[in-house]
Structure formats: structure tokens, C-alpha cells
Design brief:
Length: 362
């Protein structure tokens, strides 16, 4: 990556809740306010997660939230970073995503993944062992629905006999679609579809580099243009606030993933994989190659170095941990991040970027 290559910066919201009556409404007011704030201070995009049946209230319907954010903002792109595509009927997915694109006047980014949590597939009565094939069929149908023509399809999971789906998205030929990958098959899937690859926030940078190399090799062989999106957890603050204010929340988040996704433990640092309880996790083990944290200068330098290492087009930061609302500390950090990181990495003022230059994948 050349030093002059602009890197777009996005903000991924955490939607988990403390067990306090009325906290859901308070948290979502904060998220809507901070989405508008992120737009004002220079972020290119804001993003949402998806999970189901979580006691902490993890967001199960990101399209509903994306539509709300679209109405509070004017230019920032919005969408899930990843939505679990195999859990969705392709018609519902096409309709909901198109409606968000319409309501936002062409600002949807749709991140999709195959899912990694067995109880979610059980909830919807779907076989997780077929998640890859189901994802491929849903995505293939989504692309066909959005070309506007009647769809004739006889597949493994779905059949259509000339049906059409409306409305169509504002962005043509379609909104950007990103694919999350936490394995070699996932990376190859993104390359095969010719779509941007989303890298998870949990693996070390050098681990991700091997996946990026594979993705670029596969794209080159298939004649597809590679595009890489990196997600990282981050915060701006001094060492004391990071250790005692921010890290306890992120430790809970990281422990939840290590507990619920067994295969993840085999891919991480042996010290982390060997942890038996949350208190075993240490910040100094994960800070150097997973977190964008520190002073404004430290965060900017690390973000630039990692973006160059992976030749990223887009970096997305997740500031909150698995609790909320965060109040002024989140607002202050969003402000600092936009001023000190997002705008410098973009290398130009987002307000001057024409729509066709904002990275829409065609």
C-alpha cells in the first residue's frame, strides 16, 4: 500500500446491555446520538452486529437499527458488519436491505457472514452443518433479486418460479456487500464471489495476514478485485484508564467469544487459549497485535501500520465493550477518534468526497 492511499474509517457499535430496567431505551438513544456524532467528526460509516438469544440483549435485528440510524444521519454509510445470512430467508433479506438503502438514499453497506454459534441455528431449526451451502445459495439469490428480473431457481434450499422482489435498492447495480471470514473457506468464499473480505477483531494481525494473502491470490486467479476491511477493538486514553476502565469491559467481550466459539481458541495465542476463566486474560497479552488503544498519536501510528501491513481499504473500530450506556466517555472518544485518526487516515475531508468516490463496490 502506498502512503497516500486513503483508508476509510468506520465505527461499530456494541449493543449489549446491563441488567437495569429501562437501560435498552437509554442505550439506543446513546447509539443514535453517537451515530450522528460519528458522522459529524469524520467517520465514513457506522455498523451494527447481529446475534440472537443473548441474555445481554445483543442486537438480533440490525436492519431495524440501521433504518433508525439512516434517519438520524445524512451522509455516513450504515449497515451490519456481519448479518448471519443463513438465518435469513433470501426474500426477507433482499427486501429489508433494499428498504434500508431506500430510506438512507443509497447509504447501505451489507456485511454478511455464515454464523458460528450453534444455538442460533437451533433456534431457527436450521442445520449448522450446511451453513456454507446455505450461505452461498442465499447470497446468490440476493444478487439475482437485486438485478430486478424474475428469478427462476431450483436449489438445495429454495425454489422460485419467476418471482420478483421489490423495492430495488437505490445504489446500482446494488449496495456494497462484504463477506466476513474467520477461516480459509470463508476467505476463499469472499474471493469466489468477488466481494470485499471482512477480517475479525479477535485474531492477531500476522494471523490475518496469511488470510489476506490467500484472499488476494484467489482474487487474482479469478480476475476479481480484492478489497479488505479490518475490524479492531479500540479506545483512546492513558494507561491507567485503559487498564481499569476500558479493559474490564473488553475482557468480558473477548471471553464470551473464547467460551462460545471453540475453534477460535485453537487459533489464538496459546496463553489465551489456555485461560480457564475470565480473570486469566491479561491486557498485555492482547494489546500489541489486537487492540487499537493508547494515546491519539499511538492509535494513529498503529492504525496506519496495520492498514499498510494488510493493505486495507477500510478500518472499523469497536469502542465499547459488552456493557452500556457509556455516557460522556464514549462521546469524547468518538470525537477524538474522528479528529485524530479517521480524518488523517482518509487523507482528505469526507465532506469533499463525491458519492462515486466513496468506495461503493460495483
Amino acid at each position: 500500500m502506498t502512503a497516500s492511499k486513503p483508508v476509510k474509517f468506520g465505527l461499530l457499535f456494541s449493543t449489549q446491555l446491563p441488567e437495569v430496567p429501562g437501560s435498552a431505551a437509554e442505550l439506543w438513544k446513546e447509539i443514535l446520538d453517537e451515530a450522528q456524532h460519528a458522522e459529524d467528526v469524520g467517520f465514513y460509516s457506522v455498523h451494527l452486529p447481529e446475534h440472537h438469544m443473548r441474555e445481554d440483549g445483543y442486537l438480533p435485528q440490525p436492519m431495524v437499527a440501521a433504518a433508525a440510524i439512516a434517519q438520524r444521519t445524512r451522509s455516513v454509510f450504515v449497515g451490519p458488519t456481519v448479518m448471519v445470512a443463513p438465518l435469513r430467508h433470501p426474500v426477507h433479506l433482499a427486501e429489508e436491505a433494499a428498504m434500508v438503502d431506500v430510506l438512507s438514499d443509497g447509504r447501505l453497506i451489507l456485511g454478511l457472514g455464515i454464523g458460528n454459534f450453534q444455538p442460533e441455528f437451533d433456534l431457527f431449526g436450521l442445520p449448522m452443518e450446511h451453513q456454507g451451502a446455505l450461505f452461498d445459495e442465499v447470497l446468490g439469490l440476493l444478487l439475482r433479486f437485486w438485478d430486478g428480473s424474475p428469478v427462476h431457481h431450483e436449489g438445495r434450499f429454495f425454489n422460485f418460479d419467476g418471482q420478483i422482489v421489490r423495492p430495488l435498492p437505490v445504489q446500482q447495480p446494488r449496495p456494497p456487500i462484504w463477506i466476513g471470514g474467520m477461516s480459509k473457506p470463508g476467505v476463499r468464499r469472499a474471493a469466489r464471489f468477488g466481494l470485499p473480505l471482512i477480517l475479525d477483531p479477535l485474531h492477531p494481525i500476522e494471523h490475518l495476514r496469511t488470510w489476506v494473502d490467500l484472499y488476494r491470490e484467489e482474487c487474482a486467479q479469478l480476475g476479481n478485485r480484492p478489497e479488505v476491511i479490518l475490524i479492531r477493538y479500540g479506545w483512546i486514553g492513558d494507561a491507567d484508564s485503559l487498564e481499569h476502565v476500558w479493559w474490564p469491559h473488553l475482557r468480558q467481550t473477548m471471553w464470551t467469544y473464547l467460551r462460545d466459539i471453540p475453534r477460535l481458541r485453537t487459533d489464538v495465542d496459546p496463553r489465551i487459549a489456555a485461560c480457564q476463566q475470565i480473570d486469566d486474560l491479561r491486557l498485555d497479552w492482547v494489546k500489541p497485535d489486537r487492540f487499537l488503544i493508547g494515546t491519539e498519536e499511538e492509535v494513529l501510528a498503529t492504525a496506519r501500520r496495520w492498514a499498510e501491513r494488510l493493505d486495507c481499504d477500510h478500518v472499523i473500530v469497536k469502542l465499547q465493550g459488552s456493557t452500556g450506556p457509556w455516557g460522556s466517555s464514549l462521546s469524547d472518544t468518538v470525537e477524538a477518534w474522528g479528529r485524530a485518526v479517521a480524518r488523517p487516515l482518509l487523507a482528505s475531508d469526507p465532506d469533499t468526497i463525491e458519492p462515486d468516490d466513496r468506495g461503493i463496490t460495483t
